[in-house]
Amino acid sequence: MRVLVVGGGGREHALCWALKRDFPDSGVFAAPGNPGTAQLGTNLAIPADATADLVAAAREHKIDFVIVGPEAPLAAGLADALRASGHAVFGPGPAAARIESSKAFAKELMRRARIATAASQTFTTLDPALAYIKRHAEPLVVKASGLAAGKGAVVCARRTEAARAARAMLVDAAFGDAGREIVIEDFLKGEELSVLALTDGEQLLLLPAAQDHKRLGEGDTGPNTGGMGAYCPVSVATAGMLERVRREVLEPAIRELAAQGAPFQGVLYAGLMLAADGTLAVLEFNCRFGDPEAQALLPLLPGVSRHLADIAGGGWRPRETALAATRAAVATVLAAPGYPDKPELGAAIIVPRDLEPGTLVFHAGTERDAEGGLRVHGGRVLTVTGLGDTVGEAARRSTDACELITFPGKTYRRDVGWRETREARAGAARG
Q: N or C: which end of the chain has fewer CB within 10 A?
């Protein structure tokens, strides 16, 4: 089998790694890929948004199926273009991808489907937005409606902060076209969960819940980022809760998309807030594997690539309704100094060859220099995944490896999975 993975980040490296684990004899291609994917297959020097070139490459290399990793090419219609040219694809068309590419669309879909979410209003001009902010309770959240690489949500403790955020998006174009429309919504308190499901537009196969760490600093401090780490499993995500997510969130969303003539085929990601009283509400939907959630989830799910291939090819018949994690994974992002605002690029990276077994290193913002050395090439540089029988053991492996990998100014969190390890320590103390 010959598979093309579109994208060049840590998620795509993890997808290529999972494909080679599940189909050792497969030919894996990545476009554009990165130094990590080059170790697993063939990189094609084609940007993820070059639709015509990717369609031609799939034909030239006799690709059996394509996995589209990032949200931007999905929103731009790459999956439909590939399907129209006769290729099997894992990923939704642009109409269904609007569930991520337009937060305003997602809010309206949730209203129609009666899916619980924060109360909100949508604006395209500043004065009405400021008037709404002026009478809104504090704190509140201002979001760019379009795709902003995971950085378009601004949590504002004060109305003055919200007004500045709205002005930055609508007037100063801080997020470009993504901020031409904004969503202002209530701030929700609780614990965040990421629940992903594979779907062909009708059937759903739930993956284990993960928890992302969006803030740059330890203790969930500092600016929002694209994600500084994730872990799985999450103990509060019981089987009963996941069934609620299926029944109250994922199935209604899939049905509503189909009713609107936009059937969703691929992986649907629900970012959830679990309140102290057990209430669930949707913070966001994504139309693809999360990054860094994929780097935590995929190593725990041997055989998952078969589901992706079967969904892409049609005739998918899953024998279960959910996949379970039998081990734990903690994925820690190593970021460049200055991330997320102005990451400093070009520094040399050294990854020791003798990292502890049970440690995986996924490339994201890296490149090879003329001499073959590894260099920093993006804000999020590497994702270091530790595996273990417990979240605590996996966290230790991940953190130990992060200490050993070197480049100037590396930034990372040493507390990924802290809620889980705190509960484990509390349980041990009670015992």
A: C
